[in-house]
Amino acid sequence: MRASNLVTSRRLCHRVFCFVLGVFVGLQMYAAVWPWGRNGDGTRDSPTLNTWKLLKDLTVAKLSSSTPAPVLTNIELLKVNISANINASLNTLLRLNSEQHIRNIEKFPLHFHNNSVVILIQVHKRLEDLQIMIESMKSVRYINQTLVVFSHDYYSPETFELVFSIDFCPVLQLFYPYAIQFFDKQFPGDIPRDCPRDIGKEKAMATGCYNANFPDTYGHYREGKFTQIKHHWVWKQHYVLDRVHILKDFNGVLLRLDDDYYLAEDIIHVIRLMNDEKSKICPSCVMYILGEHEQLKPNSYISETGDVVISNWFTGIGRGMAFRRDFWEAFKSCATSFCKFDDYNWDWALEHSKSTCFKDMKILKPKAGRVFHIGTCHGFHRNIKGCDRDQVKSSIQKVLSMYQKNLFPHKFKASKNKAKPRSIRQGFGGWSDPRDQELCLRFFENKTDGVYMLNQINKVITT
After folding, report:
1. Which helix (H) or strand (E) segment is 327 a member of?
2. Hey, what's the torsion of the CAs at 274, 279, 282, 283, to 10 degrees?
3. Do residue 310 and residue 344 come from a single domain?
4. What are the CA-CA distances from residue 136 to residues 57, 140, 166, 259 (Å)?
5. In a domain, 334, yes or no
6. Residue 166 is assigned to a structural domain of this protein
7. Within this chain, do residues 113 and 70 fall inside the same structural domain, yes or no?
8. The domain spanning residue 322 has which CATH number?
């Protein structure tokens, strides 16, 4: 009898144990798939987070206006496909931009002051160049105190994975929402009804293509792959300075770069030093230029590493444009001059604005560059045979290594550039379509949301 009771008791305990274990495992599995995580705010301890929900939202277009956006935290996001539903995809990107999730901020808290630097990088398709740039950033002193913003206009798993791998500084990703990768058959991409680039106005008028009345200075019609460069250039600065919450009161320096640059390890030190000394050596300077346009000048690191030149800005003066919020606010008043100028290149449009609106745009530039162009071989407008990216990188690294002891100057000595200002030139074209001009103006006006806005812009061509 006692043995029977003992067996029964053991069976009961076994069943209770199995039940409790099953409940525990079930709760863990439930927590793992529950879309809003353990913290009640859309975040979770696990990096798997809301990945599959986000993937579904992006590809099946399930997000509603009341659905909170999941945070971009998982490598699985790299599997995202562009939705066939443009409206849903665009709304999702706008939502992700508004989330403004900053990676690594727990490890590297941000404490902005007037000498802080924010780096803003325009990212396209140049994966190998971007990888080299990120490698160079690892060695930059004070990079852990610097918010690095990547603004994408092309969405690929490889690019996202590379940016996700950064673990040495705070990182914010923004997504240019009007990328032609989405809008391949409607504005701001090339729509089927648009006139072909070289059709000529007479034939365009005869065929009745959509923008026949608006050829550029040279008789050509717009191409989305070119106009996107200027649109994205304006948008990313607008979004960072007008809409990123953490930068609302930022009064430091914004360093604007392309994804095919290489950075010297003292670049932030040099920006801070110029910022400290600007009031003494050039109070009217509105911008810093950190490197040569193409040339690599090894000798400048021997005798001129602590020298800066005061000059008027012009297209081709150099790379690595750094400025403060007051320049952006002043630039807004030149929006019409910039957006109406028939040139799809932002730098030539900026030079036109300088001549017609700014009147004066003084800059400080170190004689020994701290920004270098990796993409000198293969860029948007060039493909030089026999030019090797790795050789370009090696040459830059060799110079920086050879003259490393001459980096990190303690003070600057200023001199003036005696170059004469050049006369205003005609634009290179590609920017005569009123839709491009209107979209550009809306960025300056902080009106940049949604397909509805694009539909409104499309109407300007028929009114």
Report:
1. helix 325-332
2. 130
3. yes
4. 36, 7, 12, 12
5. yes
6. yes
7. no
8. 3.90.550.10
Token readout for 75 is 């490598």
Q: Look-up: residue for tokens 């809409």? A: 243
pTM of the entire predicted model: 0.82
User: Is there a single domain that holds both residue 61 and residue 131?
Assistant: no
Look at residue 119 and give its three-state secondary structure: strand
CA–CA dist 43, 307 (Å, integer): 49
315: left (phi over 0), alpha (psi -120 to 50) or beta: beta
Per-residue pLDDT of the chain (463 residues; tens, 9 = 90+): 444 444 445 455 455 445 544 544 443 333 333 332 323 333 333 222 333 344 334 333 333 333 333 444 443 444 444 555 666 667 777 788 888 999 999 999 999 999 999 999 999 888 999 999 999 999 999 999 999 999 999 888 888 889 999 999 999 999 998 999 888 888 999 999 999 999 999 999 999 999 999 999 999 999 999 999 999 999 999 999 999 999 999 999 999 999 999 999 999 999 999 999 999 999 999 999 999 988 888 888 888 888 999 999 999 999 999 999 999 999 999 999 999 999 999 999 999 998 888 878 999 999 999 999 997 776 555 556 667 888 899 999 999 999 999 999 998 888 887 666 666 678 899 999 999 999 999 999 987 677 788 888 988 887 6
Structural domain of 160: 102-181+224-416
Are 368 and 290 a contacting pair, CB within 8 Å? no
Interacting residues of 37 by C-beta distance below 8 A, sequence separation 6+: 43, 44, 45, 49, 50
Total count of domains within the chain? 2
419 and 205 in contact (C-beta within 8 Å)? no
